[in-house]
Amino acid sequence: MSIASSAAARAVHAFTASGAVLGLLAMSAVMAGNFRSAFLWLIAATAVDAVDGWLARLARVDAHAPEIDGGRLDDLVDYVTYVFVPAALMLQADLFPAALAWPAAAAVVLSSAYGFSRTDAKTADHFFTGFPSYWNIVALYLYLLGMAPAWNAAIVLGLAAAVFVPIGYLYPSRMTAGRGPTLALGAVWAAAMVWIVWRMPEASERAVLWSLGYPVYYVVLSLIMHARRVAL
Predict the structure, then answer these.
(1) What is the pLDDT of residue 92?
(2) Residue 1: its pLDDT value, please?
């Protein structure tokens, strides 16, 4: 094992860990009531998460930094940026009715703690088991759409329950069939969401509604692919 290979592997782990710093910056913005900045920091953390796996495989971190569990590190950072900070944001932004605010936020962090700790959270055929804790996306849409707090709570509680339902949801960067179109559509959607958040609070309601097309596509495709794998 060369010094350069070892250094590259550790640099990739440091890059993954930087997502936690971005999560801390997002949390600071949430506490200050600056939700636009909070969402931008969460987008940055998501960008790190989108490429660190590819970098880890490229650097062969298992071989060149075997004392560090990259999967565990990734899960720790993801829990902060995909679960804890979005739950705090939804509380701070008063997206829930007062009587349901803490129960809804608690449902988010507790259900996802269970989801992250499942041994089959990520399956060998590249599916997430149960709703994959995309609470950063849920929080963003609930904030942008401005629905009644009771509806927000109902959606969040329903998705928290979905964590426990063993339906497979696609792992976009690792899927096989339809990977190219899914990643291309995902890139367009991600760019649109960056533009929408950057323009907050002047973001176009029509653009927000159109952007929902990709999450709907993702869920429908996941259900179709899950049905096929169950039928095999």
Answers:
(1) 97
(2) 56
State which residues of the chain have pLDDT below 50.
Answer: none
Whether 218 and 170 have beta carbons less than 8 Å apart is answered as yes
- Whether the full predicted model's pTM is greater than 0.90, yes or no, is yes
pLDDT of residue 171: 87
CB atoms closer than 10 angstroms to residue 100: 17
Pairing of strands 168-170, 127-129: antiparallel
CA distance 172 to 187: 11
